[in-house]
Write a structure and sequence with these properties.
Order of helices and strands: HHHHHHHHHHEEEEEEEEEEEH
Radius of gyration: 26 Å
Number of helices: 11
């Protein structure tokens, strides 16, 4: 279920919450003749060190993040590109706080947004007489690093680099090189991974990024003289298990063998060795590994266990708390068809009506939904992290007391109660995840990584 944005109502609510959010209000009684707001006129100048329309880079991200942090919707999220969406959102912000809506980050606007000027470091070049340099082969320039690999839902220059690399590899990205990591880019990555013999997940993992020449290859360690060959951990190989089809008891084959090898490399004995048969020995070994690592002891390969073993990549967005009080259940219905040609953009966690709903991370409540304002979402909240990533909770029975726009929330704090308001008849939480305020991504592996559907005891109130 996707939700509609009620921009006008949001503006009114945000305006009443400006004081609570710590904004510096511009004078509201000034007229054009007084000159008080003349600095924010149609001829307003961009403040030194602030971005202008058309600019790209971290200074644009800082402004976009500040706009969203103050509760305003920015279509596309923090893309790092000062485009028309950013200009419109900036104008809306300026109008609400009492500045002239110019769409320019002038001095007054920067002060209210609390964004620092980008540093302008001058590089001093020293001329030195040196001997003629010998001819060297230019170093290979890799456009990305392991910490900047984009994920589905991301937008910007990093995605453009990925799309260009795919095209250079002879593949066409559906939709073109548009800087948006959507289904077209995902499908093309799957095709590339298949061609290269990599695990076809559609995720830009390290092996795929290396194969695309987006990041530098990881140098292999040189074995010490006379030492026995070092064991290679599963996490450092290109063999990963498909997170959507983790092996279960009774399975046979290479996937089970990979699991068994990972357990053995972790110091856990698998009776019978890596024989590719998921039987009692593998079950017991998993229990021992889970016990040793503080995981829920099930004897099954849960997502949490697979991530810990390095068999699957960690989720694109990490949360610290499962959102629903158990008992509960969920399954992956990402992009399942819904009415009116819609696709499911979240994960549905089914539980008893009235069960507690927890904040999955520290953040700020930046939007409220009601049955009156959104017939599909019903009662709900938007919880936004400091980097602009937000979580949409829908279908609540009711929103918890104190959950107002601008309220600061700690992970584990109760934000509402599970219900069936909006376009549903089955009590459940509809949870969406939007990295950096952008498009929704599949949240199933994100919640599975902290699964707590078996925990019925309410969480303790987090410390303030």
């Amino acid at each position: 279920m996707s939700h509609n944005h009620t921009h006008f109502v949001n503006r009114i609510i945000v305006a009443t919450a400006i004081a609570a959010m710590g904004l510096v209000m511009a004078p509201t009684g000034a007229s054009a003749s007084t000159g008080v707001v003349a600095a924010s006129s149609a001829t307003a100048k961009t403040a030194p060190g602030q971005p202008a329309f058309g600019d790209k880079g971290p200074h644009v991200v800082a402004v976009q993040t500040a706009i969203m942090r103050n509760g305003f919707t920015l279509k596309g999220g923090a893309t790092g590109v000062f485009n028309k969406s950013t200009q419109r959102a900036l104008k809306t912000f300026q109008k609400v706080v009492g500045l002239k809506p110019t769409g320019v980050v002038d001095t007054a606007t920067a002060k209210v947004l609390k964004v620092a000027a980008a540093s302008t470091t001058t590089v001093q070049v020293t001329t030195t007489t040196v001997a003629p340099a010998t001819t060297t082969v230019p170093a290979v320039v890799y456009p990305l690093t392991t910490s900047t690999l984009p994920v589905r839902g991301a937008k910007g220059d990093a995605v453009v680099a990925v799309q260009k690399a795919l095209k250079a590899a002879g593949l066409e990205v559906k939709g073109g090189i548009d800087g948006a990591f959507g289904s077209g880019t995902t499908a093309t990555i799957v095709a590339f991974q298949t061609n290269k013999g990599l695990t076809a997940t559609g995720v830009l993992d390290i092996p795929t990024a290396v194969a695309l020449a987006l990041i530098a290859p990881v140098a292999a360690a040189t074995p010490a003289p006379a030492a026995a060959p070092a064991a290679v951990s599963v996490a450092s190989t290109t063999t990963l298990i498909d997170p959507s089809s983790l092996p279960v008891r009774g399975n046979r084959g290479d996937t089970v063998r990979t699991l068994q090898k990972a357990l053995i490399n972790a110091g856990i004995e698998v009776k019978g060795g890596a024989d590719g048969v998921f039987g009692g020995a593998t079950f017991v070994a998993l229990q021992k590994y889970q016990t040793a690592n503080g995981l829920t002891v099930t004897g099954t390969l849960t997502t949490q266990t697979a991530v810990k073993l390095g068999l699957v990549a960690a989720p694109a967005v990490a949360i610290s708390v499962f959102p629903v009080q158990g008992l509960c259940s969920y399954e992956n219905t990402w992009h399942a068809p819904r009415g009116n040609n819609r696709k499911h953009l979240g994960v549905d966690v089914i539980a008893k009506e009235g069960n507690l709903l927890y904040a999955v991370a520290d953040g700020t409540i930046t939007k409220l939904y009601t049955e009156a304002s959104d017939k599909l979402a019903g009662n709900g909240v938007r919880l936004t992290m400091a980097d602009g990533t937000y979580f949409f909770y829908g279908h609540m029975q009711k929103i918890a007391d104190g959950m107002t726009i601008g309220a600061k929330v700690k992970a584990g704090q109760v934000v509402g109660y599970l219900g069936k308001t909006g376009g549903t008849t089955t009590p459940h939480l509809h949870l969406e995840v939007h990295p950096l305020g952008g498009e929704a991504i599949d949240p199933t592996p994100i919640v599975a990584a902290v699964d707590a559907c078996s925990v019925t005891t309410p969480l303790p109130v987090p410390a303030a």
